[in-house]
Design brief:
The protein contains no helices and three strands. A three-stranded antiparallel β-sheet has the order 1-2-3, with no helix packed on it. The protein is elongated and about 40 Å long. The two termini are about 15 Å apart.
């Protein structure tokens, strides 16, 4: 899974803020996609340790 960050350290979409990604401990990351592949896109939810960390709607 690619979790891109913008130069300012904010998550690109979809993503998890860099501050939430701590070192020296296990992190559980998962993502779901629900919708279509058209221009309207669907919904992507990225989870960190079982909690929704980012929700993005659209393409």
């Amino acid at each position: 899974m690619d979790l891109p960050l913008t130069p300012a350290g904010h998550a690109a979409r979809p993503g998890i803020p860099q501050a939430a990604l701590t070192t020296n401990r296990w992190l559980h990351v998962a993502a779901t996609y629900s919708g279509n592949a058209g221009l309207a896109g669907g919904q992507t939810v990225t989870y960190l340790d079982g909690q929704a960390a980012d929700i993005h709607v659209g393409h």
